[in-house]
Write a structure and sequence with these properties.
CATH architecture of the domain at 2-153 and 644-726 in chain A: 3-Layer(aba) Sandwich
Largest sheet of chain A: 7 strands, antiparallel
Number of strands of chain A: 19
CATH topology of the domain at 2-153 and 644-726 in chain A: Rossmann fold
Structural class of chain B: mainly alpha
Radius of gyration of chain B: 17 Å
Distance between the termini of chain A: 23 Å
CATH class of the domain at 2-153 and 644-726 in chain A: Alpha Beta
Helix content of chain A: 55-70%
Radius of gyration of chain A: 56 Å
Helix content of chain B: 55-70%
Oligomer: heterodimer
Strand content of chain A: 15-25%
Number of strands of chain B: 2
Shape of chain A: elongated
Number of helices of chain B: 8
Largest sheet of chain B: 2 strands, antiparallel
Order of helices and strands of chain B: HEHHHEHHHH
Strand order of the largest sheet of chain B: 1-2
CATH superfamily of the domain at 2-153 and 644-726 in chain A: P-loop containing nucleotide triphosphate hydrolases
Strand content of chain B: under 5%
Number of domains of chain B: 1
């Protein structure tokens, strides 16, 4: 089925009448962001499903929710009163049968004085031409219309054929382990094998019951048989319960393995981010401490002006000047003290001399006076004429006490004595002067210390900047936020623990099952031993055959499923290799890994079969695209999807330009027809030229769409229309 | 009579017009004994924690460049007596400096009676005020000519000593 044409009238940004024709091969609609690519995708989707994508809500909504927004604003603005209609019609051509289907959807509103009277529903018509050259007939039967829509795009494969770039993630969701199983169920006949398996199981069960009844009937000890039967039922019940437990444990194990596996690819980056975050924390601490030290130093720097006497810087001369004054003062005082001492010394000398003759008042002064008057020494009875030497000596005895009673000059004769104060100031100054000489060095050392701290802060800040850049780079490369990274690391460790725990549980359950089966066998043997006579041969054979049948049904189903998986894996790898051939980075191989619960998960492995870690986002998206393509292409014998057209909006925007051409080549090979909306070829003309000239690409029609008003200047869309230019 | 004690009993004065300048750089209220911590006062650009600190700084600055300026203003502000200045050794160094610069003859002063000594002490106080006034004048001139000098420069007051 080929889409030959789409006619769009007044649908969203496609004001007026617009038409695009398509051929086999890859048809590309080129337009920059906001140019109308997604609205074209909406046009296709709306015809088929009566829904358009609402970007604000990130979901598809029905016409009755969106209503007149479907209609071009320009068209509405041009008609004040009257009816305005949006319509899209798609022409499908089944080339093999040469029949044509024209599906058309219309939605109208009535405008009265610029106000819209909206209806809820759109109108859907299907026209059919049994042969392309015949006239089209309208299909009126609703059931027939539904059947035609389903044949053009079967619901179960719709998601794999018509999708938007951003939906790729959810179509093949690595977080949902049954994604592939569901796809296989939809696309293959595996369900029939499942049914067969069920029939075989119940047949085997009934055969076994019949055999057991016969064994019981032939028992020589009915009571014992009854007892054994009872035990058997109990053990069987137990095994059933354990199997349920096993299934659950395996489910849990698969889930944990899968979660751990999913995290594994992100773990390396997450660990690095976490480490960087830790580093950042420690650098931050360091900066904090350094800043505190710096603050302390800067604060104490000013305090040092007084504490370390820096304020005295260069004032040493004051002490020198004071010293000079003090020295003069001291010298004067010393001289005065020396003079005094000399005087006192002389007086002492005299005293000393007198002291050697007689003690004072010996003889007593009255006798001495008498001696002077009589001019005679009464001691020795000799004459002592007045003014003679002898008379004078006697007189000295009278004068001596007078001399000795003269006050000694022991103190300086001033009114004040500030000597202690001056000395104190001198000594205080002296001790400070010693420090003045060290001030410059002290300041230099303090400044050096501050400089050192500043240097360390600069280094720490640089490191901080680097760590931040590293984090930023990792965050943007890995699309993980810091919080994501932390939770990934924590989650990985949790899931790994679960894997360990559930593996142990599964092993334990397996042992329990084996043990119970042994018990069951022993009970069966005991029952058999009680049989008297012979069990009919046909019954034995019947039981055997039915059990074999069950075994074959189970193994066949598993083999078919495995083959499907192998085929899917092969197809996916073909597509993946083709799409990634333009890029030189390690791409690995797609491996569909079997989980303990029987589901399969796609993963990228290296040449040794080990998971390839650190695959880039482009590769992961391409794996998903490859899986999507494989799901469809594996169904056909030659790997070519010839009946259905691929319509996809911006699938290439999620991976690099390196892969764009590879993707187009693969798509043009896998799908007989595809319609791709892409912005990659808008600015990159070299890429556009390659698209249109590469011999490996089977190119269909290439269109360039351009809006009449750029998105940034679109305050109102009353003049918005979209021009469509065919480039080939 | 104890000369130093008598000197220290005096409270020097300054030209009231410098109040703003003093307040700009000094934690006037809630000083070290008050609510402002060293860290916060420094951050606010208060390099001195008491008025006598900036006064000592100004006096030493005046002495250093031998620049004294009589206070002409009628409005003078008095503050705390010298005996309360801290560190005491610095305060005594300032007194020593003033004594060195004064015309007082140490021997002669001892011959004077108490009344005459008091007169000398008053002159000493005046001399200190003149040197401090000189220092404040230098600071004012610098603040007027390059206000940014005292902003974003942790070493400004040390650097300013070197400049003079």
């Amino acid at each position: 089925m080929i889409i030959e044409k789409i006619d769009i009238e007044n649908f969203m940004c496609y004001a007026g009448q617009n038409s695009m024709e398509f051929t086999e091969g890859i048809n590309v609609i080129i337009g920059d962001n906001g140019y109308g690519k997604s609205k074209l995708y909406d046009a296709f989707y709306w015809v088929m499903y009566d829904q358009v994508f609402v970007p604000e809500k990130k979901e598809f909504q029905n016409t009755k929710s969106v209503k007149s927004k479907i209609i071009s604003d320009k068209a509405k603005a041009e008609i004040k009163d009257g009816r305005v209609t949006a319509s899209v019609s798609i022409t499908f051509h089944n080339i093999e049968k040469d029949n044509v289907f024209i599906l058309e959807r219309k939605y109208s509103v009535t405008l009265r004085d610029g106000l819209a009277i909206e209806s809820n529903d759109s109108e859907f018509t299907v026209m059919k031409k049994d042969l392309s050259y015949l006239n089209a007939k309208m299909v009126n039967d609703e059931e027939e219309k539904r059947r035609i829509v389903h044949s053009i795009l079967p619901p179960q494969i719709k998601d794999y054929l018509w999708f938007q770039g951003e939906q790729v993630e959810s179509i093949i969701d690595f977080n949902k382990q049954d994604t592939l199983t569901k796809a296989i169920n939809v696309l293959s006949s595996i369900k029939r094998y499942d049914e067969l398996k069920e029939i075989a199981s119940s047949a085997a069960k009934s055969g076994n019951s019949e055999y057991d009844r016969e064994v019981k009937r032939l028992s020589k000890d009915l009571d014992k048989s009854e007892e054994l039967e009872k035990q058997k039922k109990q053990v069987e019940g137990k095994i059933e319960d354990i199997i349920i437990d096993e299934k659950e444990a395996k489910e849990n194990l698969s889930r944990a393995e899968e979660k751990a596996e999913n995290l594994l690819s992100k773990l390396s980056d997450a660990t690095k981010i976490t480490e960087f975050k830790q580093r950042k924390k420690s650098v931050l601490e360091q900066i904090k401490t350094l800043n505190e030290t710096l603050n302390e130093e800067q604060t104490s720097f000013h305090r040092k002006m007084f504490r370390n006497k820096w304020v005295l810087k260069g004032t040493g001369f004051l002490h020198e000047e004071f010293s000079t004054k003090f020295s003069t003062y001291e010298s004067f005082k010393l001289k005065k003290a020396a003079d005094l001492k000399a005087k006192n010394d002389i007086e002492s000398e005299i005293q000393k001399k007198l002291q050697t003759r007689l003690p004072i008042d010996v003889p007593e002064p009255i006798y001495v006076q008498k001696m002077l008057e009589e001019e005679k020494c009464l001691v020795c009875d000799r004459e002592a004429k007045k003014d003679s030497d002898a008379w004078n000596k006697i007189k000295e005895l009278i004068d001596r006490p007078k001399i000795s009673s003269n006050p000694k000059t022991t103190e300086l004769s001033t009114l004040q004595n500030f000597s202690d104060d001056f000395k104190r100031l001198y000594q205080n100054g002296l001790s400070l002067t010693h420090r003045i000489s060290d001030i410059d060095q002290d300041i230099t050392e303090t400044l050096k210390k501050i400089n050192d701290i500043n240097g360390k802060i600069r280094l720490a800040n640089n490191e901080m900047k680097k760590v931040d850049e590293d984090i930023q780079k990792l965050v943007s490369d890995s699309s993980q936020t810091l919080e994501d990274a932390e939770s990934i690391v924590a989650e990985f460790s949790i899931q790994n623990k679960y894997v360990k725990d559930f593996t142990e549980k599964v092993n334990k359950i397996t042992q329990q099952i084996e043990h119970s089966k042994k018990t069951l066998n022993s009970i069966n043997d005991q029952l058999k031993d009680l049989v008297t006579g012979e069990i009919p041969k046909w019954l034995i054979e019947k039981k055997q055959v039915l059990n074999d049948f069950e075994e074959i049904a189970v193994s066949t189903r598993d083999r078919v499923f495995s083959n499907l998986i192998a085929q899917l894996e092969k197809e996916a790898n073909n597509h993946y290799t083709a799409m990634t051939s333009g890029n030189k980075s390690t791409r690995g191989q797609i491996k569909l890994r079997k989980l303990p619960n029987g589901n399969f998960m796609p993963e990228i492995t290296d040449s040794t079969g080990n998971p390839l870690l650190g695959s880039n986002t482009s590769n992961l998206i391409l794996v998903k695209l490859a899986a999507i393509m494989a799901i469809i292409s594996a169904k056909s014998n030659d790997g070519i999807v010839s009946f259905y057209s691929l319509i996809t909006d911006a699938p290439t925007s999620v991976f690099g330009e390196d892969y764009t051409i590879g993707f187009c080549k693969t798509v043009s090979k896998v799908y007989r027809q595809s319609i791709i909306m892409s912005k990659e070829f808008y600015k990159n003309h070299a890429l556009r030229t390659e698209l249109m000239t590469n011999s490996e690409i089977k190119i269909g029609k290439v269109y360039l769409i351009t809006p009449s008003i750029p998105e940034t200047e679109r305050a109102d869309r009353k003049n918005l229309s979209t021009s469509i230019e065919l480039l080939n | 009579m104890e000369l130093l004690k008598k000197i220290k009993d005096r409270a020097p004065e300054y030209d009231s017009s410098y109040e703003e300048l003093i307040t700009k750089f000094t934690v006037v209220q809630g000083g070290r004994a008050g609510t402002a911590s060293e860290g916060t006062s420094w951050e606010q650009g208060k390099y001195f924690t008491t008025k006598y600190e900036i006064y000592m700084y100004a006096t030493l600055l005046g002495l250093r460049c031998n620049y004294r300026l009589p206070i002409k203003a009628i409005n003078k502000s008095k503050f705390i007596e010298l005996k309360f200045w801290q560190p005491a050794d610095l305060a005594e160094y300032v007194i020593m400096g003033i004594l060195a610069k004064s015309e007082i003859d140490f021997n002669e002063i001892e011959k004077k009676d108490d009344k005459e000594v008091e007169k000398d002490i008053l002159n000493l106080k005046k001399l200190m005020e003149e040197y401090a006034n000189g220092g404040f004048d230098k600071l004012r001139a610098k603040l007027e000519s390059s206000p940014s000098f005292f902003e974003n420069n942790d070493n400004c007051f040390i650097d300013f000593l070197d400049e003079n």
